[in-house]
Amino acid sequence: MSEVLLTDGAMVTVRQLTAADHDQVVALHKAMPDEDRYLRFFSMSVPPIDIFVTKVLDENAGVGAFDGHVLLGMAAYVVIQGSAPVTADVALVVAHQVQHHGIGTLLLEHLGSLARSHGVQRFTADVLPGNWRMLRVFSDMGLAVSTRPNFDVIKVDIDLVPGEGYLDAVAVRERVAATASLQPLFCPDSVTVIGAGRKPESIGHAVLSNILAGGFTGTVTAVNPHAHELLGVPCYPSVSAIPNAPELAVICVPARSVADVAAECGQEGVKALLVISSGLSTDPEQARRLLETVRHYGMRMVGPNCLGVVNSEVQLDASFAAGGLTVGDIGVVTQSGGIAIAVLEQLRRLDLGVSTLVSTGDKYDVSGNDLLHWWESDTRTKMAVLYMESFGNPRKFSRLARHLARSKPVLAIRAGSTEAGQRAAASHTAATATPTVLREALFRQAGVLAVDHLSELTGTIAVLSRQPLPKGNRVAVISNAGGAGVLAADACAQNGLEVAALSERTQRELKSVLPGLASVHNPVDTTAVVADEVFNQALRIMLADEKVDAMIAIAAPTALGDPAGAIAAETNKPLIAVRLDQGNAVDWLNGLPCFADPGAAAIAVGLAAERAAWLSRPAGHTPDLPAIDANLARQVIRDRLAADANGGWLEPEEVVTLLRAFGLPVLGEVFAPDVETALAAQSQFDAPVAMKAVAAGLLHKSRGGGVRLGLAGAADVRAAFEEFADRFGTALHGVVVQLMVPPGRELLIGVTSDPTFGPLVVFGLGGVDTDMLNDRTARLVPVTDVDADEMLRSIRSAPALFTSDVDKEMVRDVLLRVARLAELLPEVAELDINPLVVGRDGGIVVDARVRVEPVPYVDPYLRRLR
């Protein structure tokens, strides 16, 4: 069961239909007006539908949209027996009085998700030519739809594979609905504060005071049974006593009373709640009642346990933060009230402000994803700032953030970056998948700029607000203090920037204006005795260099002068100032962002360059890969889970079948349970072989002493087998015998699946280099062709790795195939290809392990509230 928003922001419940809904389904069909009945049944009469309804309900193949207990519409499918691909007839009925609210499209989205979970691959329907509304519903879904005339009807076929077009269409529909539902919360025309006390130190009093001081454009009331007026605002004993129900209620009462107050608000027609009160998370019953009440009455809610909401469009400061309303164009969402206060203070110090600030607190309802929807539609918001301690739906967040970041910078403060919570892992790939690695992959692919400290956030905001993006990552540094320039150059190199090599012309011009002792190589040291006008002239010379994309100018005051005032220029390149005697970490100097620390300046410039590079990056696509038999791979997994419901590590022959089904070049092998079988296998290969122990608990064969190479005859094979038997005892199940492969570079490609983030694909050096060098990179699925190319470039050893002796295209192909495997087979919990041995003309998977486990079907993009 899911609560879902319609296009006008109203809330309905969508759930699977059961036998208990039979009478309502039949009544829905019988209540259809004549025109709807004709378009649905091609006749004015109602055919016997009991058989159809019973079949749908018995097969759990229908979903309904409900307003309370009233059925508004239903969608259902019936599988066509023997169809390949698996196809089902689809039917849709929406009550006439609620049509044109998006219910039909919503039902088809949920029905399609249900059908995919049952293995249905395609819907089909017969539609009358005059039923243009139904044809439009099908076409607007975003799925691949084909139509063709079939006698007096139009045959419609719908491919249920959710491609990019479908996911984009769902996101647009969700954004329209979310924005409409959030309007009473962020832009209400009336607000009441429930629990506003007389004492200035009470939270309710502080919130009311802020609303009034901010100049809220709407009507303000308060609820306090012991007062008739407070701060010049009329008070009422209860919400029900207010003459006109407010759109937004701010609740500041003790936790034990919140659910009851929320229920009264819902009964009186309040549309949104802001719950400042804390303590509900320690009282599960009250928390449950609050969320059920919010859903029952179709209200949106921020909180509980939050600082509040600020929206400068209507001059609403419904928070207990100090300092007053700061109007600006920066959107902020944070789970922490303390972080929200700190961000507001930092922005205020820079004369910057917020368009919207939301402290989500325990986020029972409104979350960061809702704010991404809001800011996408809000033309006043030019930049988004996020502080999120957890992700409710990171895969949806990734799509939303990636779309928003194309038009507005999205910044995130990293939270929980330590590995204290990292789970112990037994395989190389799983050990890579720490929470930090998952989050960094998410941010990188979505174009989110991540910072570790509030000062870094403020500095980056300052640079992005007042400076153009650099066209590249080449930075020039000028200073009147050589040491500071060196620090800046080091910081640039540490933050993905290149210290630009100045052209010979630039160096000549610098020599002509600077003192003889000055250094004209980047970083340029003008010496401490240079005059202001000379410093500025040198700065302009460097900015004119075509090899320079951005500029950092550093001023250190001395008894001989201070060139800070000379740091100014009209340029289309970012120019960042550093003033070493500056009190604030970030400030303004001649309208330029000015830092107290050259390292902080380099961090901000590095993030600006990262954004510019991400914006210029092609969107990429998941390429069509030939020779993939996903059905064979799924059968391997089904067979294993049938044998063991908990899953586990696949047997070697199962691994080979699974990987070969995805077109991966796997080295042939023979499993030998005893020495005689091993001898026969070596004899059959008639060449030197490798022999690897298969033993309980032996995950890393080489490290555990379970690998012997270059066994050229029977004596070698027998000796190796006996050695394994002595080493592993009764844990030894047998050995795997493989041909020796030609030498090449050993690489690792793996997968680990996180229940929240989904599958993560890891690439890096393999073999003995895996742990020693820890040179890896990772991306979340789906992995596009552009992602794959970035992965190949981004490991530290890439320049030395991909020479003429390593087939880069082959590695890329394997990487994309493994990513597709992870995307299509969610039951694969871990996969390690280590090593993938690659030479000049191809490569081979020498060793691989796969662990599977049962997973429930999850559709992360399905429209539904938390």
From TrEMBL:
Keyword Phosphoprotein among record annotations: no
Domain N-acetyltransferase: 12-173
Top-level taxon of origin: Bacteria
Top EC class of this enzyme: transferase
EC number(s) per entry: 2.3.1.-
GO MF terms, alphabetically ordered: acyltransferase activity
Keywords attached to this entry: Acyltransferase, Transferase
PROSITE patterns to which the protein is assigned, alphabetical: GNAT
The keyword Transferase is assigned to this record: yes
Coiled-coil residues: none
Protein name in UniProt: GNAT family N-acetyltransferase
Organism: Kibdelosporangium philippinense
